[in-house]
Amino acid sequence: MVDITKRFVDVVANDKVSFSLFPNEVCALLGENGAGKTTLMNILFGYYLCDSGEIRIYGRIVRLGSPKDAIAHGISMIHQHFTLVPSQSVLENAMIGVEGGFFLDKKKARKRLLEIEKQFGLDLDPDAMAFTLTIGQQQKLEILKALYREAKILIMDEPTAVLAPIETRELFATLRTLVDNGRSVVFISHKLNEVMEISDRILVLREGKNVAERKKSETRVQELASLMVGREILESLQCSDSAAGNTVLQLKNLRVRNSKGVVALDGFSLDLREREIVGIAGVSGNGQTELSELLFGIRRPEEGSIVLDGKEVPGGSPSAMIRAGMARIPEDRISTGVCMDLSVMDNMILVDHCREPFSKLGLINGREIRSWVLDRVRDFQVKTDGVDAPVKSLSGGNLQKVILARELAGQPKIIIACQPTRGLDVGAMEYVHQAILRQKERGAGILLISDDLDEVLLLCDRVIVIYEGRIMGELCSDGIDRERIGLWMSGVA
Amino acid sequence: MVGLSIVRRQTLPPWAEILLPVAAIFATLIIGALPIVLAGGNLFKAYSSLVYGALGTRFNLLETLVKASPLILTGLAVSFAFRARFWNIGAEGQLFAGAIAATAVGVYGTALPSWLVIPACIVSGFIAGGLWAVLPAFLKTKLKVDDVVTTLLLNYVMIHVMGFLLYGPMQAAGSSWPRSEPIMDAAHYPILLPRSRLHLGLVIAIVMVLAIWFINARTVFGYRSKCVGVNINAAHFSGVNTDMTILKTALISGGLAGLAGVGEVCAIHYHLLMDISPGYGYTGIVIAMLGNLHPVGVALSAFFFSCISIGSQTMSRMAGIPVYIEGVI
Q1: What strand order describes the sheet that includes A75-78?
Q2: What is the pLDDT confidence band of residue B298, given thresholds at 50, 70 and 90?
Q3: Of the four, A147, A171, A232, B10, which is 20 to 30 A from A26 by CA?
């Protein structure tokens, strides 16, 4: 791809970007959110036509007007959101669109599928229904689909975002097999460690432009990070050593069922003190979501008790938690954190609107709210077109700032932060980390529930590892042993 | 990660929010021209007689306003519920409930002092309509039953309740028709202007427009109702009692529709009969949408619908266009 330029109304998404891919390699496309990585690959996959520039495949100039053209040239793209038919089998999903001829020849298709599976070490039962597959298996099926279509070039858009650490390792093994067998992979990501682990060559984009190209052997994580964000970032954040104070949150012997009625947390106890950050680490889906829902007051415990600041609070009441001085940063910003169709101001006041001076006797005091919100927007450096702009016009990082500004406004004693940096770019991630550390210095007790082990290790004073809803073990920050945590996360005591 | 993608425009500039419904009205009139021409009418004559019929004389204008009163109330009822994503398709049934309650007070409330009769009709009609809407809201919040289905079906339940009453306990003595005894004179809405049917209902409707506007813009409840409508999960997470918000919203919504029923009994028919509403509750849905769920927009769009309805009668007489063309428009 040479000198590709693509404009959207008033934004230049790609500005004379060039990109080349060689056989037998994994090339990473690295950049922050909005750097133009996905746009570039969408052009290669025929979703968009570029405004200028040319695409050559094996030396021949091609015009890719639709994904169908791209597939015909051996290009396949695997999106974050899979495009499988849940009610059909692995085999049927692989065949869709390339059945060939009028009659279904399942026998031939099955033979071919099994050959591909064998060649690339992908073990999926051809008769398994797609909806029974785990996320990792669904992704394998997507890869299988691409290979069934004789793809030579695989574009993977943030493939690890949805995967657990073990699944990520499996995916990387698969990608290695692919490139060893003459395929090429484009790996779109903003996770530096993964990029360093899997790719042979790394192309960094920033604000729609080529910034740098590096061979893996010639670069380091720190260099890539600064290339990506355009400035040096601190490798490790500064933690203050102030000793933890009184206990502010006590969980005793909790037992919680998830929405399907399965026990998601069992015998769960934990103490959180002032001025400390406790991390909950584990592979996603081991009770973290239920723990956060319990603490947010959305889910009730079946057994056990929650003691906030010395007082026992009933489960299942968000307002009881708020009254007890708890700030909550939810896992899913868009569906539980904000009202996307409402303004920055309406969202900022969502928790505090019923308190004086923002309302009195059921009447809203718009002037008080506006000036308070303006202060919060300034303090938290929210980039917005004003407080009346709808929050859906904000980027992910700024959306999270709105939530932080709202939740941290009342000087909370306890903060429950659930996946606070998921999907954020490096700059926003650093902002959130600093905000959490400042709250700790102020004296808050913080429970950090995160799938990102690096984040947990970076911020926390103590780390608790959970597996299938039970605590596997606890480590203090001075005795961190990654290998032990890794074993606990996979259920080995 | 999300790069760039083409998305629907997220916010409309303020002028577009006003202009779009107006454009929709013009589009309606243009499309409406087709059947008029097909029916052999003169288009210019037809539309000028429509305007004349709705607004041209004192009598016509006042009749249009009379017709607008219940439409404003049902439109308001639907818009207030929709704003909180309580899909109240049941304004028709709630209107009937209000009409029954007002009739009950107007016929059997003879012990009341006469100055209290109208307020009693209004309050009981509001409560009856409101409770008839709270029932599906309760089913929605407690049992997660779909509100579109329940509100719609409860309309038919209410029609049969009314049928039972009018063929049974409330039927006028000696009548073989399904109609109640006439309400007492003290229950008649006062007429606002001499030589017209313009009645207290219009004042009530306008007061309600202002009240809902105030609730939406200035009260904690109005704010919560809006948040529940936009994202009920986020509202619940933030400590809003979402169930209570929906129930209160339903009570007010149904109450407004009930007031429309009170007006029809106390100012137009003076007794209860089966066809007390020519579908005001359903028209309210269209009015609410055209009015962009804003109370002032609802008032204007109700007025527009009432113009079409009254004006088309003249159009039919003067331009020889069948009345059912109005239905088409």
Answers
A1: A75-78, A153-157, A184-189, A26-30, A201-206, A209-215
A2: very high
A3: A232
